[in-house]
Amino acid sequence: MSQRVAVTGLGVVAPGAIGAADFWSLLSEGRTATRRITFFDPAPFRSQVAAEIDFDPAAMGFSPRELRRMDRFAQLCVVAAREAVADSGADFAGTDPFRVAVVIGSAVGATMSLDAEYRIVSDSGRSWLVDHDYGSPRLYEQFVPSSVAAEVAWLVDAQGPVCVVSTGCTSGIDAVAHGAALIREGKADLVIAGATDAPIAPITLACFDAIKATTPRNDTPEMASRPFDRTRNGFVLGEGAAVVVLESVAHARRRGARIRGEIAGFASTANAYHMTGLRKDGHEMAHAITTALDQARIAPEDVDYVNAHGSGTKQNDRHETAAFKKSLGAKARDVPVSSIKSMIGHSLGAIGSLEIVASILAMEHDVVPPTANLEHPDPECDLDYVPVVAREHRTDVVLTVGSGFGGFQSAMVLTSGRRDER
Amino acid sequence: MPARRVTIEDVRQILVEVAGAPDPGDAAGGVDAELNELGYDSIAVLAAVAKVERDYGVKVDEGELLDATTLADLVELINAA
Amino acid sequence: MSDNVVVTGIGLVTPNGLGTEDVWAAMLAGRSGLSTITRFDATRYPARIAGEVSEFAAEQHIPGRLIPQTDHMTRMALVAAESAVRDAKVDLATVPEFGGGVVTAAGAGGFEFGQRELESLWSKGPEYVSPYQSFAWFYAVNTGQISIRHGLKGTAGVVVGDQAGGLDAVAQARRLVRAGHELMITGGADSALCPWGWVAQLANNRVSRATEPDRAYLPFDRRACGYVPGEGAAMLVLRPAERRDAVPGYGEIVGHAATFDGKAARDAAVGVRKAIELALADAALTPGDVDVVFADGSGTPELDDSEAAAIAEVFGARRVPVTVPKTMVGRLCSAGPVLDLALALLAIRDGVVPPVVNSAPAPDHVLDLVVGEPRALDVRTALVVARGYGGFNSVMVVRSTEG
Questions:
Q1: Does the structure's ipTM exceed the value 0.90?
Q2: Residues in chain B whose beta carbon is closer than 8 A to a beta carbon of chain A?
Q3: For residue C106, which residues of chain A lie inside 8 Å, CB to CB?
Q4: A213 close contact with C: CB closer than 8 A
């Protein structure tokens, strides 16, 4: 008999919010954390806005040695993981270390360090035969991003399965699903799962500029992320990390833990069509949604909130809207749908985990976060996207979806911690 | 406008250079050949246009790029830049 | 649907061969693919030996339009995946629309492609960066490209765990077959044999600085001085036992486990030993059932010692033949252990174990290493060990499908 999977701890580092409580304030107040890029001069780039985190690693208690070792994506993740572990109240020290697992998602790993280090060893691109004498002794940790999972494992001395999931922009959902599978199969008693990315580096901007995927709305950065709005013209790059603690419902009950929510269903598909393009009909995402709902034994009519991918590209917004209509039927027009990327941007692999945490908080508060900046609805996106202002709404079941390069589509169904009270 | 007019052949060569040669089996491709039939997707077109912009010092209208579905459309759009 | 998951197709691109039978023949002949780097001028670097896939003309294998958008490692991944599918003799059109998926492991992504684009960015400017950089470098690229090429719309997965990731990917594919997928393409591909990738690898202080190819990678030898990085791709087709079509299948994946070495682990043998024990438990087998072990063979003395200790503790000293064929190709990162898995399955098929080359373990070494020459052996069950930088251990057990 497979186990029900509970979420018992949450941790978040997001633009405009460090910690789950701040994160919820930001989302429920509909504040946007997008701004003109400050990490470097963005003037040479087409898109000059991003959702950056004001994050002082020294103040987070990292030693200089740890800071030398860890790229920003690892630092963000460790801070989120610490919060999730503390929030869970789980006795990690008293658990068989081989029964503790770690699964971390990341789309682009240590991009910031790799970009910066490359510049140094290549003399700003002048030499193809880069100079190893100038290379950081920590370059290998950045070269293979599994190092981030090791950093998290060390926090609690986890010695069970530890790995990184890197399915691009669905990594954040897929990593949590992978962790849930380990619980369901009985391979672990406690799993730390989540995702992180810190991609705001020149090379990332340049490659999204080249495919015109990011918005050139540089004059009003705080209003630049506009999913489902007629005037939207690309996504806003973000950064962040979110981590959850997973265990079986039975395990959580035995130790009297507060169950924040449950992972009730998950499926992912590929469109087998194009590395970046989406077919308009949303067929593959719809299949993922239907399969995830079936697995959760939840009917479309019982979905209370849809946490959309909502990246703010025309292609995505229409693709996703079609997928919701196809998979949810009549319910699609009768369920609030929103995109928190309107507030915290698109942090690539991390965003799926941030959206899972946002979904759980929405159930706890019975409030649906809004789609900020949605002022002029796209006539082809004709669902209830909860424009601008959060909405009080009884929420026991959330569907969260992600879509990413490679053609990957993921869907997860979450249920509230009060599931058995219904 | 580019200092010298860009020809169909120029664009065809640039596409091969940045996005690879079409398969022999693909459409023989006159001026009205659909870019898609030649196997060139939106990213291939973006790659080609970026090269044209660098080589010829022009700026092609982004908004109209999506509507360019044939080689001829693309050449006209570039020459109008 | 049964829990039995069978490997029905193998595709390999390695420094000593192109295609499964070519690689297998090279492995049995002890033919090494290690040599001084030719891809770039390595004379200025303290390490110069690598396992390069040299006789590989991507243009002969994949469509021209895929060339500008792919790194070398993705091209190898595509070729290996295609030959695995061909080997499995499966008509993909008969697989249900969402019934076939892809899970690959990645190490460093498309690093050479990335170096070229970083060079364009910093020497010329952002407008010189290729639009293909947006996906050619990232870790998920091979899964995406393989899924598109073969029209597989089922679950797409990607794991990263350095060398151990290769087995983790196959384990994930096995999990998906058990959950209902009718076919999975799975494996790993890696290459970072460009100056930028080379410098990144040098930073781990484990890359061999020997100057002679036959002295560079000597696992379980007192002269061990590090490892030789290699490049390549190894892909498998996995199917549920009842749907293996016309082919009998190479063998069944019967067990897997992964562990992580704790930071304070004083005895580094603990993690890998536990992974071996848990994988055997997952397979419902005992150490005595295992006929051969494909060791990780890291080539650094302390890691070799801990692995040898773990194997000896589980199986007994010199109680099971142990081999490290990767001494002929170098460590292929995510592709490495999948290659070992393929070789283990071929050993089951042909009753012969490929050797460790170049290493000369002490006569009283705690392991019974298959040194220098292949060994004829009736192999029904093989165990593959993979260890990734930072303490990742992954172990998989494969078993003959015959009775």
A1: yes
A2: 41-43, 46-47, 50, 62
A3: 166
A4: yes
Give A-chain residues touching B42 at CB under 8 angstroms.
277
The average pLDDT across C255-259 equals 98
A172 to chain C, closest Cα gap in Å: 12
Q: Please give the pLDDT value at position C265.
A: 65
The minimal CB distance from B47 to the residues C66, C67, C130 is found for C130
What pLDDT, in 10s, does the model give residues A78-114?
999 999 999 999 999 999 999 999 999 999 999 999 9
CATH of A5-254 given 3.90.1100.10, 1.10.10.10, 3.40.47.10, 3.40.50.880: 3.40.47.10
Paired with A305 in beta bridges are A398
Asked if the C254-399 domain carries CATH number 3.40.47.10, the reply is yes
Round to whole Å and give the CA distance between C400 and C307: 25
* Interchain contact, C160 vs A165, CB within 8 Å: yes
Per CB-CB distance under 8 Å, the chain A contacts of B41 are 274, 277
Segments in C203-335 forming alpha helices (H): 213-216, 269-282, 301-315
The region of weakest confidence among A210-214, B19-23, C109-113 is: B19-23
**Count of domains for chain B:** 1
Domain range for B18: 8-79
CATH of domain A261-417: 3.40.47.10
Of C67, C127, C131, the CB nearest to B20: C67
Q: Are A168 and C140 in contact (CB under 8 A)?
A: yes
Instruction: Choose among B39, B46, B50: nearest Cβ to C65.
Output: B39
> Beta strand A49-51 with A237-238: parallel, antiparallel or unpaired?
parallel
Domain positions in chain C: 5-243, 254-399
**A181: closest CA among C389, C157, C253?**
C157
Q: Does C126 touch chain B (CB under 8 A)?
A: no
State residue C245's pLDDT score.
64
Q: What would the pLDDT profile of B21-78 be if each residue is shown by its tens digit?
A: 877 655 555 677 788 888 888 899 999 999 999 988 889 988 888 788 888 999 999 9
Q: What is the DSSP letter of C186?
A: E
Per CATH, the homologous superfamily of domain C5-243 is Thiolase/Chalcone synthase (3.40.47.10)
pTM of structure: 0.97
Residue C19: phi and psi, rounded to 5, are: 100, 150
